[in-house]
Amino acid sequence: MSKSNCIIISAAVVVVTLGLVSAIHLLRQRGEDDPPRANNLGQVELVESESKDFELGSDATCTLSGRHSPAGIEISVYIRSLNEYGVYQYDRSMITTSPGQQTSVVVGGKLVEFTPTLK
Predict the structure, then answer these.
(1) Do residues 66 and 94 share a domain?
(2) Alpha-carbon torsion angle 38, 45, 70, 77, nearest 10
(3) pTM for the whole thing?
(4) b vs e for 32-66, b when ≥16 Cβ sit within 10 Å of the residue's Cβ?
(5) Are 45 and 101 in the same domain?
(6) What is the DSSP letter of 36?
């Protein structure tokens, strides 16, 4: 391999490395690699066909609704939060769990923990 080829390859490696380091630095500044802060709702008693709202702080709300299923309780988790542009975004997830079992779910970047029961 010629000397000029070694220089070109070395320069390319340096450029790629600097790009990766810059990207990692930007992600850390934005907190992208930080785990979401837990929002523990505690014991939550749900009534079938009714929803229950919880404030999560910083312009975010969580709505839970549940129904009986053969596997336990099927719970819909809705998160409404204000994004960095001042626009509300809506995220949804579903989880099936057993009554009285602590449950955690990440929806829209928010970690929500609760222990559900269903009437």
Answers:
(1) yes
(2) -40
(3) 0.69
(4) eeeeeeebebeebebeeeeebeeebeeebebebbb
(5) yes
(6) P
Residue 102 and residue 59 share a domain: yes
E strand spans, the chain:
38-46, 51-57, 60-69, 72-82, 88-97, 103-107, 110-118
Residues in the chain: 119
Distance CA 51, CA 113 (A): 17
- Residues 6 or more apart in contact with residue 12 via CB below 8 angstroms: none
What range defines the domain where residue 8 resides? Answer: 1-34
C-alpha span between 79 and 87 (Å, rounded): 13
55-68 pLDDT, tens per residue? Answer: 998 789 999 999 99
